[in-house]
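User: Sequence recovery, please. Input:
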């Protein structure tokens, strides 16, 4: 497919531009919101996988750390670009097909953006849990706007106190972002210290006090249920392996997220050195948190004890599921009860309990700001490069991509009305795994197509190889484990990811008359120049075909 360039001056849609104002430490503190993502799904993974849940987190963060070195290398190739790993990967794929590049960027945005709605929803729930009892009218009132039961049982768009309070928190995050990357980084330093402290305490205190019970971390067998709906230790048959795949699938959304540290390459004072340092130290922080917090959380709470047995009708069908305490309780699965449970692990009385919950609310705000900073810049760069509508390339006097931020905010206000945040997370992660696959393969594509380019950081070849293998491992987890989180998760995620097609076609063929912006042609190195080409030949297409086969085979093997 040929790619045409526009002629004439490469004038951006707006005069403003992103500014080089931070070092790797600034990006580290902005990315320090990633460890708080453990709050989003720690309960859901424990209640779904069972006793091996703590191991799921450790294995997943190891995967994420290995993959990060591929991202660090490709980010160093393009120090003048913002928007994160998907933008750098898009440069590899664009020569092999116009749609492949925007697909990667789009999936990256759809993966990161819902952190805003899920995080603000959980934070709002934590605030309400401190101020009001669970049965208070403000916690039970709800107005259903649209029934989405056709998509997933019990799913709906609704208005409640969580929505309105969550929307207010999103506006606070927006106000902080509006001041630019430098001021955002300063706020994140303060929030980071305050918000990471409770996660460290929650991880370390129970280990030091001996409250982590080895019995709660085993037996190392997937969760299963008997005919009466009672939880028992399962077997490592295909059903058990499917559960494990589902756990690793959903954990990736949190544990791989520190790759956002490379999202600010265009704003680093010294991108050659800052890029690698930012992702390395962010990764080490995540390894620490994603290891000790799940172990302590599960080691203290355990899976839980049966509170109310399941109700079974005459035909043997379970009409009302069994009710458990511990990790298997409903509020832990949804995430709304995680903060209270974690605060209880410190054993400091009511005042300390509330202080810990408040600090966890700040941890979620940290994650929201991290996501808004990264996802809005992905929209911004995608607009500059000609993938998304032109209006998204606007920045204000502080160098903040405000129109992209408003778009992020509006999209997430809709998601905030959703009644099932875990399902949103799972749909988002379908997109994330697809982005991850394209970008890990982009590392070896850049090696082949641009062998002589300067690489401020060049990962060992064996790490690039391991990253490529993990790209296909992640697709296997996607195919096998996505529908653990709802029967329509995989298909819905694929449909949502394909929504970029009409968006890109309108921008490219209607707005830009079939031509990429001149600046993008130069930046993406699409013009004929020394040292870059399509030397990979058919290999990228073979990788795509193999990836599709992996998803289909994994989906066929899955047992629910």
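Assistant: Recovered sequence (560 residues):
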């Amino acid at each position: 497919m040929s790619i045409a360039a526009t002629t004439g001056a490469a004038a951006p849609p707006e005069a403003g531009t992103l500014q080089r104002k931070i070092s790797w430490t600034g990006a580290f503190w902005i990315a320090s919101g990633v460890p708080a993502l453990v709050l989003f799904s720690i309960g859901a993974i424990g209640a779904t996988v069972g006793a091996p849940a703590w191991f799921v987190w450790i294995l997943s963060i190891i995967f994420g750390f290995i993959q990060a070195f591929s991202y660090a290398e490709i980010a160093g190739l393009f120090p003048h670009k913002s928007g994160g790993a998907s933008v750098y990967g898009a440069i590899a794929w664009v020569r092999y097909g116009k749609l492949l590049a925007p697909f990667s960027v789009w999936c990256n945005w759809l993966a990161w953006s819902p952190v805003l709605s899920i995080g603000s929803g959980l934070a709002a729930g934590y605030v309400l849990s401190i101020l009001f009892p669970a049965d208070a009218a403000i916690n039970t009132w709800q107005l259903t706007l649209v029934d989405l039961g056709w998509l997933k049982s019990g799913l709906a768009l609704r208005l409640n106190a969580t929505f309105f309070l969550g929307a207010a928190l999103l506006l606070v995050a927006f106000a902080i972002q509006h001041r630019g990357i430098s001021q955002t980084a300063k706020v994140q330093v303060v929030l980071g210290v305050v918000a990471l402290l409770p996660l460290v305490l929650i991880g370390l205190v129970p280990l030091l006090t001996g409250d982590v019970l080895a019995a709660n971390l085993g037996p190392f067998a997937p969760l299963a249920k008997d005919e009466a709906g009672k939880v028992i230790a399962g077997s490592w048959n295909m059903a058990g392996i499917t559960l494990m795949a589902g756990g690793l699938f959903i954990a990736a959304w949190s544990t791989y997220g520190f790759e956002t540290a490379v999202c600010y390459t265009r704003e680093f004072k010294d991108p050659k050195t800052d890029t690698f340092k930012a992702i390395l130290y962010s990764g080490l922080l995540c390894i620490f948190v994603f290891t000790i917090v799940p172990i302590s959380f599960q080691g203290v709470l355990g899976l839980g004890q049966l509170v109310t047995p399941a109700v079974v009708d005459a035909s043997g069908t379970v009409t009302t599921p069994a009710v458990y305490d511990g990790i298997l309780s409903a509020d832990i699965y949804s995430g709304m009860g995680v903060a209270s449970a974690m605060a209880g692990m410190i054993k400091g009385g009511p005042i300390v309990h509330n202080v810990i919950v408040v600090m966890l609310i700040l941890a979620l705000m940290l994650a929201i700001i991290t996501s808004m900073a990264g996802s809005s810049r992905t929209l911004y760069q995608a607009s500059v490069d000609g993938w998304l509508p032109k209006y998204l390339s606007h920045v204000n006097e502080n160098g903040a991509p405000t129109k992209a931020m408003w778009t992020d905010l509006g999209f997430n206000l809709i998601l905030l009305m959703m009644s099932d945040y875990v399902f949103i997370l799972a749909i988002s992660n379908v997109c994330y795994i697809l982005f991850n696959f394209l970008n890990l393969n982009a590392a070896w594509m850049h090696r082949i197509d641009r062998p002589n380019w300067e690489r401020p950081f060049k990962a060992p070849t064996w790490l690039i190889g391991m990253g490529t293998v993990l790209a296909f491992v992640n697709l296997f987890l996607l195919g096998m484990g996505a529908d653990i989180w709802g029967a329509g998760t995989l298909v819905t995620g694929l449909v949502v990811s394909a929504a970029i097609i009409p968006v890109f076609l309108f921008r490219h063929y209607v707005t830009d008359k079939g031509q990429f912006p001149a600046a993008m042609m130069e930046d993406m190195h699409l013009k004929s120049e020394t040292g870059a080409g399509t030397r990979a030949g058919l290999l990228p297409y073979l990788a795509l075909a193999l990836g599709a086969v992996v998803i289909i085979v994994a989906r066929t093997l899955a047992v629910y």
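The longest strand covers residues 142-147.
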